[in-house]
Amino acid sequence: MSRKTIIVLACVLIPVAILVLLAATGWGGGWFEQFPNANFVIAFAIGATLTVLLAAGLMALVFISSRRGFDDGTENEMKDPNSPPKDSDGP
Fold it and tell me: Quick one: which of 5, 13, 59, 89 has the fewest CB in 10 Å?
């Protein structure tokens, strides 16, 4: 891995790890005091994971679409008002 990649990963993963630890401790309280129902924790984790995966997938589609040229502008097929009319009947 390049040094730039390591720095970017550190800048992303360190705050995420801190927020996860703060959420797990309930911002000072115990884990089970904050979330007494395990089903809630599991459902929340699955929902958050699927949301992040959906967002990553959509961003990947935008990136792929842009790289393959699907997002390029189309040519303007309207005639220039100053151009002479074309004769479609003659050779």
Answer: 89
